Amino acid sequence: MLDTVSAKRMNLRDIETFLAAARHGTFTEAGLRLGLTQSAVSEQIR
Length: 46
Hints:
By secondary structure, the protein is an all-alpha fold.
């Protein structure tokens, strides 16, 4: 059986958030840099 993956369209903000998390190493630090909470960063990347 194949697993289905829920596709989400990424917008520029999602990409910026992902890059910030990769660059800064944690969702918390990315959130501080972007003016978001850690949970908002996590949700955007999810």
